[in-house]
Design brief:
alpha+beta, 8-stranded mixed beta sheet, 9 helices, 450 residues
């Protein structure tokens, strides 16, 4: 007697003797767990009602089932383990996932399950991501990966653990793949491999997509080989962050596809062909300048509500007598006494085994055609203007400091900087005063293309 198939919505970890009839939508790249001991691969299925469910293969089961499962093919599936999905690893609508094992039975069926039902989309160009970055709102995206823009999609009842992040799917043209770099994570001390991709869409706003670890090694290498043809990628479940400039970043559940044919892919490819002169001009720009979305005149700053704002300005120093460095905590960068020991507990952040280090500080005025803005630069941002390390400045005499300030003022008309500022509100004399904090400064010699 044949068991009747059930809908995905009926399945939970208490269901017995179930059979699902599913169509395979995506096979994600096999990954290795952070401890390096387990290999796993996620799959995404849908049933005829359009409800998606994810499945996970571990270790040897990746090879066992990988050869018999093909995208867009339909199968009956039974005898898999059913477990509740941890929110941070959720890529499907259903709250439970399938874990395939040696007892799992998979049978190919010739008739296709009805494709995913189209859902309401709210399209957001890449240029608008700054309005959603670092917000408390939780967005969930579960689209068919055929979006020309970043797609927001909200499903009632689905939750994510990515608080303060804008979860999105993108489809974009790749302009550049930068060289890989390695960082040490402060919280864990574990090294991480990162590779940045510069991407754009029809909004003409290039942005950096940072890929981490295996994404940096696998997908980035594939994309780099196709770079001369301007490949179009989809990346689902990315997050928008404002650290070190507005950018996108992969997450543990990000999925990449490269040059995947679809109606929207064709539309973006046709747009790219029609605007190839502009794209080539952008590609020839400095990679660090590509991620600057737009320039705001200084006179308009009080009215701007965005979280990420760039101004294009020259700089000068009106306060010609000022200190150019201070002794800072190696952990929090706040000022510490000059007579502190080589290893100390910081009175500001309470961290132990901190070291005192020189840190540059520079009070400037930024000027454009519409007005001036007083700004203060610290650390590496100040070093970009002085072109001298903090350690070197700390050894200079007062006269040398004065000569350095004079040289910055003398070069005011020769250098243009792109400066990223963010607003903050401070209390002064019983009133809220809006101030602007510098987050990043880059030297630029030509105007951006918009």
């Amino acid at each position: 007697m044949t068991t009747e198939t059930i809908a995905v919505k009926e399945l939970n970890d208490q269901t017995r003797n179930w059979v699902l009839k599913l169509r395979l939508l995506e096979k994600y790249h096999a990954r290795t767990s952070r401890n390096g001991q387990t290999k796993f691969q996620r799959l995404l299925f849908t049933d005829k009602q359009g409800t998606t469910i994810q499945a996970t293969l571990f270790n040897e089961n990746i090879d066992i089932f990988g050869t018999i499962l093909n995208i867009d093919s339909s199968y009956t599936i039974s005898n898999a383990s059913v477990k509740h999905v941890q929110p941070q690893f959720k890529v499907a609508q259903h709250d439970f996932e399938l874990i395939f094992n040696t007892k799992t039975k998979i049978v190919h069926v010739p008739d296709h399950v009805t494709p995913l039902t189209q859902e309401h989309h709210e399209f957001v160009p890449l240029s608008d991501i700054s309005k959603h970055v670092d917000t408390e709102t939780r967005f969930v995206c579960n689209c068919d990966l055929n979006c020309i823009y970043v797609v927001l999609r909200f499903y009632t009842g689905i939750t994510r653990s990515f608080y303060k992040f804008f979860i999105s799917d993108i489809l974009a043209i790749v302009l550049e793949v930068l060289q890989p770099r390695t960082i040490i994570k402060k919280k864990t001390g574990i090294s991480a491999h990162i590779r940045d991709i510069i991407i754009m869409d029809q909004s003409n706003s290039p942005i950096t997509l940072s890929t981490w670890d295996e994404f940096a090694s696998n997908e980035c290498n594939e994309i780099e080989l196709l770079l001369d043809s301007f490949p179009i990628i989809t990346a689902s479940n990315t997050k928008a962050v404002s650290y070190n400039g507005l950018s996108l970043s992969t997450t543990p559940v990000t999925i990449f596809t490269i040059n995947k044919e679809s109606t929207h892919y064709t539309s973006l490819r046709n747009w790219a062909n029609d605007h190839m002169t502009q794209i080539l001009q952008l590609k020839s720009s400095e990679p660090s300048l590509l991620k600057i979305p737009s320039i705001t005149p200084i006179i308009n700053l009080p009215q701007v509500k965005d979280n990420i704002i760039w101004i294009q300005a020259s700089v000068s120093i009106s306060k010609t007598i000022q200190r150019l460095w201070y002794l800072a905590c190696s952990n929090c960068n706040k000022s510490v006494p000059k007579d502190c020991e080589s290893r100390f507990t910081c009175p500001n952040c309470a961290s132990e085994n901190c070291e005192p280090k020189p840190r540059s500080i520079l009070q400037l005025e930024a000027h454009d055609e519409t007005g001036a803005l007083p700004i203060t630069l610290f650390g590496s941002e100040a070093e970009r203007v002085t072109n001298i390390t903090s350690e070197k400045i700390s050894t200079m005499q007062t006269q040398e400091h004065e000569e350095l300030i004079k040289s910055i003022n003398d070069s005011k008309g020769d250098k243009t900087y792109y400066i990223r500022v963010t607003p903050s509100v401070q209390q002064a004399y019983g009133q809220d005063i809006k101030r602007w904090n510098v987050k990043e400064i880059q030297l630029g010699t030509s105007k951006l293309i918009h």
